[in-house]
Amino acid sequence: MARANAYDRLKRLESLAVQLKQDTHCTAKDLAALHGVSLRTITRDLALMREQGMQIDADRGRGGGVRLDRNWGVGRLNLSYAEAVDLLISIAVAERMNSPMFLANLGAVQRQLVASFSPEKRARVNRLKSRILIGVTASPFVQASAETLPKRVVQTLHQAFVERERLDIRYRREDGAVSTRVIEPHYLLLKYPIWYIVAMDRLRAGPRTFRCDRVLRATREGTQFQVLPKDHFAPSLTEDDLSPVA
Predict the structure, then answer these.
(1) Which of 21, 127, 175, 195 could connect to 68 by a Cys-Cys bridge, CB 3.0–4.6 Å?
(2) Helix runs in 80-146, H state only
(3) Closest among 41, 121, 65 to 89, alpha carbons compared
(4) 3-state class (DSSP) for residue 31
(5) How much is the pTM?
(6) Closest to 131 measured CA to CA, from 241, 30, 32
(7) What is the SS3 assignment for 195-219?
(8) In angstroms, rounded to a whole number, what is the distance separating the alpha carbons of residues 70 and 132?
(9) Cα separation, 186 vs 244, whole angstroms
């Protein structure tokens, strides 16, 4: 019962924080009625939130309300490990491409993200970064043929790449022919704005490079593989393509 009460209170505190941030005026009595608890309970909740560093303002006098300071929350993002990894790698890609805009404060963000990881997780992130390659910008002809990749395909490709899992894909070649492939996504290659999968094609027993926007369907097989050195894929890559983000 104690654990259930603690869980309920945690959920209530999270809900209170969101509501106080959004509402311009809300009394403690209103909050108590909304959450089905006593005024005393809400008062204790608000006191605990203040102790945790939340800037909760209270208007004195009859009809006064409580609210969360509008500036509270900056720098207090709660990211999952997967979200933090995605953000960190996205920053690394932007830096590697020498993007001049919106990078002024990303170094500090990057350091904070790295500092939040354990040594083991930092090593895993570095391994992921080493598998993301940056090549030359795609030609105008290639850019003109770029297509939007369905979100479900993006998510499947992303998960299989991170988890080192084989993929069953339907792929449309440049000439329009469609085939089924079983691939291992060892590396991702960005030739802005086109992403490519640098993979082992298990059905053809050799390295291949696939344009992500030509993947029509992707299914994870659940079978993991060991990442091969970049040199193994040299026949299908140029020297410029072998440059990693890390």
Answers:
(1) 21
(2) 81-96, 106-115, 119-130, 140-144
(3) 121
(4) helix
(5) 0.67
(6) 241
(7) EEEEEEECCCCEEEEEEHHHEEEEE
(8) 39
(9) 13
DSSP secondary structure, 150-179, as one string: PHHHHHHHHHHHHHTEEEEEEEE-TTS-EE
Domain ranges, ordered by start, for the chain = 2-68, 81-130, 140-242
Q: Could you give the CA distance from residue 71 to residue 51 in angstroms, rounded to a whole number?
A: 17
The CA radius of gyration of the chain, in Å to the nearest whole number, is 25
For 120, half-sphere exposure in the C-beta direction (CA atoms, 13 angstrom radius) is 1
Q: If you ran DSSP here, which 8-state letter would residue 118 be given?
A: -
- Residue 188: HSE in the Cβ half-sphere, 13 Å Cα cutoff: 24
pLDDT tens track for 60-118: 655 567 877 666 554 555 667 788 888 888 888 888 877 666 666 777 778 878 877 88
State the pairing for strand pair 194-201/206-211: antiparallel
Position 34: which residue type?
L
| Residue 234 β-bridge partners | none
Rounded-to-integer distance, Cα 152 and Cα 107, Å = 31
CA distance 25 to 28: 10
Q: Which residues have a Cβ under 8 Å from the Cβ of 52 and sit 6 or more positions away?
A: none
The H or E element that residue 2 is part of is helix 2-22
Give the model's confidence band at 23: pLDDT under 50 very low, under 70 low, under 90 confident, else very high: low
State the residue for tokens 């998510």. Answer: 155
* Residue whose tokens read 């970064």: 129
